Structure formats: structure tokens, C-alpha cells
Amino acid sequence: MLGGLFLWFGFFSFNLSSIGNLFDNNFDYSLNELGRSLVNTMLSGGVSGVTTLLLKKYIFSIKIGNNKDDDDDNSKFNVEFGRFSLNSTINGIIIGCVSICASAHMVAPWSAFIIGVLASFTYVGFSRLSLELRIDDPVNAIAIHMFGGALGIIFPSIFGIPNVDRRLPDGGILYAWNLKAFVSLGTQIMGCAVIFVWVGLFCLFLFLILKQIGLLRVSPQIEEEGLDQSENELAYPLDFEKFKSLFEESDTNLTF
Length: 256
Description:
Order of helices and strands: HHEEHHHHHHH
Shape: globular
Strand content: under 5%
Oligomer: single chain
Helix content: 55-70%
């Protein structure tokens, strides 16, 4: 939770400090853009977090990932929605901040609200899809940063207000509905596709090399036990039962 709050706070300085180079002599760089960025970052992150909290509890309230061939209902793939989830709420806040990054200075607060809602549905939907496909993504980086970032690239061309960005003097599609707005949208989508291809090819090349030299994955036993136990310190040091089992397997003279 503390880490999520640190990230949210960091997005304020990130979004505010990033807009300084976006303005040239034709468009004044003023406190209006700074204030708008601050408000929109707060709105998008907060709305996305609350929406995610409610979605996980009331909308996506069914068990997923069950394999009909599995007899164990407690399978590691059996993730249950239908609860108020602090972890998912924090992820919802983060994807809300990610999705507003590119447009924090150039959208109205009501647009930031909508962006937060859309970001939340994006997180919950693709997080669920990753579980269904059994993709190993414990921190939901695909849902948050890949798809949340893709939305962030597209939103300026849709929600942008007039007279802020020199490429959209009349605003985005919701304001202008003109050729410039649609060209901007196509350009943003093309840029997003280029990023996907570049990152995908680079990662494929890197992971194939790691696989060939045997460094891509740890052993199945370590996967089951967790890297916290085999390579690092425990992520939750107050887990008494885990500590007890570790000390029982060691040569220490501690008793419980």
C-alpha cells in the first residue's frame, strides 16, 4: 500500500515537470497547465482506484481459472473475485495515473474522470485475461503498463481541449471532429503499434538467448516455493508459519 502511494505521489511531479518542454512560443506555458495536470492526475488515479474496487467486488464476482480436469479447488490458478481487494485498488490507481500521463495537461477534468473509468475496466479485463491464459504476470505489468500505456497514447487525440497542443489547435475528436483530429489519432495509433513491434521483437530476441543459455526460468521446484525463499529474503517477514518451517529445516537451535 505504501509503495502504491509513493507511486501516485511520484506521478504528480512526473506529470507536472514533463509538460515544460511541450510548449513553444505559440502556446503559453502557464500555471493553467500545471494546475490542470495536477487535478487530472488526482482524478484519473482516484476514480480508477475506486472503480476497480467496485468492479472486483460486484461485477467480476465469479471464480475464474478453474480447470475441469483439476480436482483441487485450491489450485494456484483458482483466483476468486468478489471481494474488496486492496491490491487491485492500488493497481487501479496506478493504471489511472499511467493512462493520464500523455494528456494530463490537455484534457478537461470530466475527461480525466472518464479516462479513470476506462483505465479501470482495462486493468480488470486484461488482468482477468492474463489469469485465464495462465500468463506469468504477478504484478499485472501487462494490464497496467502495456495496455494502460497504449490507452494513454491514444487519449490526447480524443479528449484534447482546444488551444493547448499545437498539433490540435481545435482540440481532439470530441471537440473538433475534423481532419487534424483524426490524423492525430491515426498517428498515435501508428506510434503505439511501432512501440509494440519494437519492444516485442527486442524482448523475443533477448528471451530466446536467455532460454538457450538456461537463464530464462528457474527450476519447477523453485517456482513452487517462490524466489523469496530460494534467492531473496521473505517478502512478508511476519509470516510466522513460514519462518517456523524455515528454521525447522535449518541448523539453528531456536524453538517455537
